[in-house]
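Chain X:
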Amino acid sequence: MDTGSSSPGGFTVHIADELEVYFNEVAHGRPIGFVGSLKWKPPTDVYETDEAVVVHMDIAGMNSGDFHVELADGILTISGERLARREGKRHYHAMEIQIGPFERRLRLPAPVDPDSVHANYAAGFLEVRLQKLPARGSGTHSVRVE
């Protein structure tokens, strides 16, 4: 099912994806704005271990220096641009590999140490690993009254 509209420029606007992000943010009481984007969204997994939040993005055909990774206010933004491979004149029979600028904005599921962000690109996958901050206020604490 097509969830967006194609344009002559070769990119697809995924309105359903933008609405999902918008309603997810509103449902959690932290709206960050709704702006239709002309950027495509690579498939991305976000998971949590005992020590870290890990973001795993499927994006072949890039170099490690082609990515911009930024963390601000609990939102991880990964962006860049995948360029078309040039091999002379082509007559396409199918064109499913997306090219052009991309961006993913992900609200992290746990507080993380901003100084711990580590990104690695290998075998067509970008992995961003962020160390979680220790939970605050857990357990029972007694206070001596003076």
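Chain Y:
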Amino acid sequence: MGSRYPHSSGERSELADRVVRVNRMAKVVKGGRKFSFSALIVVGDMNGRVGAGIGKAREVTEAIRKGMEVAKRNMITVPMVGTTIPHEVRLKLGAARIMLKPAAPGTGVISGGAMRAVIETAGIKDILTKSHGTNNPINTVRATLAALQQLRTAQQVAELRGKEVDQIVGRRLANVYKRAEGGGANGATETPVEAETK
């Protein structure tokens, strides 16, 4: 049951959650079989916060509820520039190899499977992704979250190095970053990807 469908949470309606996978397990006992379920849930506020969790229970609904609680406790903040990510990132976690690449406005989410659930609930609108190695959704979600945690904005890098933003990326790109941070949500400003291609 690898379907992904939105599941509305009553207590916190501002969070969007998605069921990535529900797995059924059977234990053979003297009286027959005992079934239990595990659910992989991704939760996000569509504005840069996202988390994932696994819940296990005898019923599907209870497993989903437990997975949502774990996901809400483990949410991370994703730095964004406009509607995309600040820079390209490649990560290997176990057998999963993940590549995330920023894209120009209007590109959309070029992704599939478990990665798409994480990226959409995080609120990223334009991105290019690729997943190599494993197709296990649990490992793919973990690797995607780890890759998103590695993202840094130009401002964060400049603060770590004790420099100005234009010393890190140049004056033209620094102006683009400032415009994107000021009003990039409406899609009217260009992103660093567009500036580099000019």
